[in-house]
Amino acid sequence: MRDISQQKENEQRIQELNQNLEQQVRERTAELAGLNTLLSTVMSATYEFTIIATDLTGIIRLFNKGAERMLGYSEEEVVGKVTPVIIHVPEEVERYSQQLSAETHTSVRGFDVFVHHARQGSQSSANGLTCVKMAAVSRCA
Fold first, then answer.
1. Is 90 exceeded by the pLDDT of residue 20?
2. Which residue in 53, 55, 73, 81 could disulfide with 62, CB within 3.0 to 4.6 Å?
3. Per DSSP, what are the bridge partners of residue 62?
4. Torsion of Cα atoms, 118 then 88 then 72 then 45, to 10°
5. Hey, what long-range contacts does 100-109 have (CB within 8 A, 24 or more apart)?
6. pTM value?
7. Which of 94, 89, 95, 87 is nearest to 58 (CA)?
8. CB-based contacts of 81: which residues, under 8 Å, 6+ apart?
9. Distances (CA, A) of 37 to 46, 54, 67
């Protein structure tokens, strides 16, 4: 005959820990859902400022109402589909690319033109490039 009381205690402890973990996951999921709702509400209500966010590859992931108003594109047209390159004058982006490449002695091309300084930990940015509105041109801030 074998005593399995220790094994039963261990199984009970594992079950308790698992239930605790599942509860924590439910709580965090609810918290994140609430924060996402809050962020979405704030972003939708922000008309005076252009806010555009991308993923690490440059694809636009967030395009607020201010960006829609300033640039003439809808969120549906750009989110998940394009990079910020479409809202800039190509010749200016190319000149800035050449300038950055010369300054850094490396090739800085494509989306990297917009994020090079940030990736280097610098506060500088690609300010001064012209944003191209669907039917007009305006200065990016």
1. yes
2. 53
3. 53
4. 10
5. none
6. 0.63
7. 87
8. 59, 60
9. 14, 19, 19
